[in-house]
Design brief:
mainly alpha, Four Helix Bundle (Hemerythrin (Met), subunit A), 22 helices, 0% strand, globular, cytoplasm
C-alpha cells in the first residue's frame, strides 16, 4: 500500500513542505516495516538450516531495497531537491520503481520460503504420527501400549496445533472445509483408537475386535493423507480431484449462461446449454430413483424436468431467430423465454430442496431416540448373539437411509463448504455403522468385558454426535436456501432491476468503480467482522426462536450482504439496492428495539434502566441510518458519500448490537434463575454453548479438532495401568 502511494505520486512543479514531509514519512514507514519483516525472516532462517542460505539472501535483498527507498524519499530537508546533487524520488523515479520491484520480489520469496517451512513441519509431524501408529498396531503388551499411546497423544496434539493454524490461513473455503472434515475424523478416531486397541489387547483371539481396530487405523491414515494433500495442494499419482456436480451448482451455472444471452447472443452454443440441462436432469434421477423420495415429490420433479426441456426448446428457437434478425419484438420474446426458463429452474431447485430437507427432517426426528443403539448395548451385555444380529440388521438399514439422506442433501447444500460437509457426513455413517456392529459383536462374545462395553459406547457416541451434527447442517442448508447465510445472504423483499417491469427493459445500474470499492473496503471489512461477532452471539442463545435472536440474525444477514456489496459481490448490484437494504436494516433495528422494550418488563428493576438506555441508543442510530438512506442525492461524488455514510451507520448499529445481545442473554439467564424456572448455569456452560454452536458453522469449523479433548485422551492413559 505504501509503495503504491510512492509510485503513483504526481510530479507537480511546486511541492509544499507538507508534501515533502509526507513522502519522507512514507519512505521511512516502508523501511521500518521491511526491517521488522526481515527480522522475523532471519529468525526463521536460523531455525531451519536447509533453507537458511536462500532465506538470508532474500532478507538481505529486502533490507537493501527498503534502505534504498528510504534514501530516495529523504526529501523533507531539501528546499530544491531537483537542483541538489542528492538523488531523490523527484530526480530518479526509475530508481524507486526498481527498488520497489526488488522489495516486492524479495518479500514474496521470503513468504514462499516460510510457507515451505510450515508445510515441511506439518509433513514431519504427520510422519511422526504415522510411525507411532505403526508401533501401536504391532504392540502386544498392555504396559507398552500405554507408553506408546501417551507419546502418540502428544504427537497428535502437536499435529492438531499445526494443522489448525494452517486451516485458518487457507483462503480457499473448499479446502478449509476439507481440512476441517479431516481434522474432525482424527479427533474422534483418537478416542476410538484407544478403546479399540485396548479391546484387541484384552481379547487377542477375537476376530470382530481385530476388524474393529483395523477400521480405525485405516480411517486415520486416510484422514492424515488428505490433510497432506490439502497442505501440499497435490493428489496421489498426479490425478485431479473430480468433485461430483450438485444440482444446486448445476442450476446456478445454467442460469448464469441463460441470463448471459441478454448481453451476448453468440458467446455459447445451443448444444452447450442442452448438455448442461441434461447433466442437471440426470442428477435429479438421484431423487426420482430413491426409495425414500415421496410419491408427490417424485411426480413434481419429473413434471418440472419435462417442463424445463420444453422451456429450453422455446428459448433456443427464439435465440436462433434473434441471432439472424435482432428486432425489438424478438428481443422482448427472448427476454420472456429467458425469464420462463430461469423460473422453471428455480421451481425445480425448490422442489428438490423440499424433497431432500423434508426427508432429512423426518429421518432425524425418527432416529432421535437412538433405540437401535440402546438395544445393541443391552443385548451385547446379555451375550444374546441372536438379538445382536437382529439389531445389527436394523442399524444397517438405518445407515443406508442416512447415507441416502446425505447424498440428497449434498445436491441442495448451496455452498461448496456445506457440500463437503455432506460428503464427510456420508463417509462417517458408512464407516461408523460397520464399526458399531463389530464392537457389538465383540461385546456379545465377551459380555462381562468392561473394555468391550466401553468400546461400544465410544462408537455409539460417535454415531449420535454425527446425527446431532446433521441437525445443525440441515439448519445451515435451509439458511442458505432462504438467503440468511453464506453467498445468498439477502432479503427477499429486495427489488431486482427489471423484475417487475412490464416492458422488460432493465434499469441502468449504478455501481461503485474499483477505486471507490478500494476506499470503502476497510469499512466493509469491519462490517464483516461485526456480522461474525453477532452470529457468534446469537448462536449462544438456547432458544433460537426468541424474538431478539431472530431480529439479530436478520440484521446480521443484511449487514453481510452490504459487506459483499463493498467487494463488488453478492446480490446487491447497485447503489439503489444498497440504500433499500439499509432502510430495511434500520426498520429491523427499530423492531428489535420494540422487542427489547417488551423484554425489559420481564427483567429485575435494577437491570431495567441499562437495557432501556441501550434500546434508546439503538432507536436513535436506526433513525439516523433511515434518514441517510432516504436522502436524495445526485452525482457520482454525492452518491459515493451516501454509500460511505450508510455503511458507517450500519457498522455503528452492528457495534451496538454486539453489546446488546450478550447483555440480553445474561439478563435472560439471570431472570430465569431468579424466578426459579431454571438454575443458574455453571461457568463452563457458556463456553460449551459457544464452542458447540460455533463448531458447526462453515466459517468456524476450523476449531472442530478439539485440542483439549486430545489432551484429555492423553491424560486418561495414566489411569490405564491401574485399570
Amino acid at each position: 500500500s505504501q509503495i503504491t502511494t510512492l509510485i503513483n505520486h504526481k510530479d507537480k512543479p511546486k511541492r509544499s513542505d507538507k508534501t515533502l514531509q509526507a513522502i519522507q514519512r512514507v519512505g521511512q514507514a516502508v523501511n521500518l516495516a521491511v526491517g521488522r519483516f526481515v527480522t522475523v525472516g532471519e529468525a526463521i532462517a536460523n531455525e531451519n538450516h536447509e533453507l537458511k542460505e536462500e532465506m538470508s539472501v532474500a532478507c538481505i535483498e529486502a533490507r537493501r531495497a527498503g534502505e534504498t527507498i528510504a534514501q530516495l524519499t529523504n526529501v523533507a530537508s531539501l528546499d530544491h531537491p531537483e537542483s541538489d546533487s542528492h538523488i531523490t524520488i523527484f530526480t530518479d523515479k526509475t530508481g524507486v520503481v526498481k527498488a520497489a520491484r526488488l522489495l516486492l520480489s524479495s518479500v514474496t520469496k521470503v513468504l514462499v520460503l516460510a510457507d515451505r517451512i510450515v508445510i515441511k513441519q506439518i509433513i514431519t509431524s504427520r510422519n511422526k504420527v504415522l510411525a507411532t501408529m505403526e508401533q501401536l498396531e504391532k504392540v502386544s503388551s498392555f504396559q507398552e501400549f500405554v507408553q506408546i499411546f501417551s507419546q502418540f497423544g502428544n504427537e497428535m496434539v502437536e499435529f492438531a496445533h499445526l494443522t489448525g493454524d494452517r486451516q485458518n490461513d487457507l483462503k480457499d473455503e473448499k479446502k478449509k472445509a476439507r481440512m476441517a472434515a479431516s481434522r474432525a475424523v482424527l479427533e474422534k478416531c483418537t478416542m476410538m483408537l484407544l478403546t479399540a486397541s485396548k479391546t484387541c489387547l484384552r481379547h487377542p483371539d477375537c476376530e470382530s475386535a481385530r476388524i474393529n481396530k483395523d477400521g480405525v487405523f485405516h480411517r486415520m491414515r486416510l484422514a492424515l493423507e488428505q490433510v497432506i494433500e490439502i497442505v501440499t495442494d497435490s493428489r496421489p499419482n498426479g490425478e485431479n480431484e473430480m468433485a461430483p456436480i450438485s444440482i444446486y451448482s448445476g442450476i446456478k451455472e445454467f442460469k448464469n449462461k441463460v441470463e448471459g444471452l441478454r448481453e451476448n447472443l453468440y458467446f455459447l452454443s445451443k448444444e452447450n446449454l442442452s448438455t448442461m440441462l441434461e447433466v442437471i436432469l440426470e442428477h435429479t434421477e438421484d431423487f426420482t430413483d430413491s426409495a425414500y423420495t415421496s410419491h408427490e415429490h417424485r411426480e413434481h420433479i419429473l413434471e418440472l424436468s419435462k417442463q424445463a426441456k420444453m422451456e429450453l426448446e422455446q428459448l433456443v428457437s427464439v435465440w436462433m431467430q434473434a441471432q439472424n434478425q435482432k428486432t425489438k419484438d424478438l428481443m422482448e420474446d427472448l427476454e420472456v423465454a429467458i425469464l420462463k426458463t430461469c423460473q422453471c429452474m428455480n421451481e425445480l431447485k425448490r422442489e428438490v430442496h423440499s424433497a431432500a430437507t423434508s426427508l432429512a427432517a423426518d429421518l432425524l426426528k425418527y432416529h432421535t431416540d437412538h433405540m437401535v443403539l440402546k438395544a445393541l448395548k443391552i443385548t451385547g451385555v446379555e451375550g444374546n448373539l441372536e438379538a445382536v444380529a437382529e439389531y445389527t440388521c436394523k442399524l444397517s438399514e438405518q445407515k443406508e437411509q442416512l447415507v441416502e439422506m446425505c447424498r440428497l442433501l449434498r445436491h441442495v447444500s448451496g455452498t461448496e463448504p456445506l457440500e463437503i460437509t455432506c460428503i464427510h457426513a456420508e463417509d462417517t455413517f458408512q464407516v461408523t455403522g460397520p464399526q458399531i456392529i463389530s464392537a457389538a459383536e465383540t461385546l456379545a462374545l465377551h459380555p462381562s468385558s468392561k473394555i468391550a462395553k466401553e468400546n461400544l459406547e465410544v462408537f455409539c457416541e460417535a454415531w449420535e454426535s454425527q446425527l446431532s451434527d446433521m441437525s445443525m447442517l440441515l439448519r445451515e442448508i435451509n439458511d442458505v436456501f432462504e438467503g440468511r447465510r453464506g453467498e445468498k445472504r439477502v432479503y427477499l423483499s429486495l427489488p431486482r432491476p427489471g423484475k417487475h417491469n412490464a416492458n422488460l427493459k432493465a434499469l441502468k445500474p449504478v455501481k461503485l468503480d474499483t477505486e471507490e470499492q478500494a476506499k470503502i473496503a476497510k469499512l466493509g471489512l469491519e462490517l464483516h467482522l461485526l456480522t461474525s461477532d453477532v452470529d457468534s452471539e446469537t448462536e449462544r442463545w438456547e432458544d433460537q426462536e426468541n424474538e431478539i435472536v431472530q431480529h439479530g440474525q436478520g440484521m446480521s444477514s443484511m449487514a453481510y450482504s452490504m459487506y459483499l456489496f463493498t467487494r463488488g459481490e453478492g446480490l446487491l448490484k447497485t447503489t439503489q439496492d444498497l440504500f433499500h437494504q439499509a432502510e430495511i436494516f434500520a426498520t429491523e433495528g427499530t423492531k428489535l428495539a420494540s422487542a427489547l422494550h417488551a423484554f425489559s418488563d420481564q427483567v429485575h428493576d435494577d437491570d431495567k434502566p441499562l437495557l432501556l438506555l441501550e434500546a434508546e441508543k439503538l432507536i436513535s442510530l436506526c433513525k439516523q441510518l433511515q434518514t441517510t438512506a432516504k436522502a436524495s442525492v445526485q452525482g457520482k461524488s454525492a452518491t459515493f458519500t451516501k454509500v460511505d455514510a450508510c455503511i458507517l451507520k450500519t457498522r455503528n448499529v452492528m457495534t451496538l448490537l454486539c453489546q446488546l445481545l450478550p447483555l440480553c442473554c445474561k439478563l435472560l439467564r439471570k431472570n430465569k434463575a431468579g424466578s426459579g424456572c431454571l438454575k443458574p448455569a455453571p461457568p463452563w456452560r457458556e463456553d460449551r454453548i459457544r464452542t458447540g454452536a460455533n463448531a458447526h458453522s462453515p466459517e468456524r469449523r476450523a476449531e472442530t479438532f478439539g485440542i483439549k479433548s486430545l489432551e484429555n485422551h492423553v491424560t486418561n492413559t495414566t489411569f490405564l495401568e491401574s485399570k
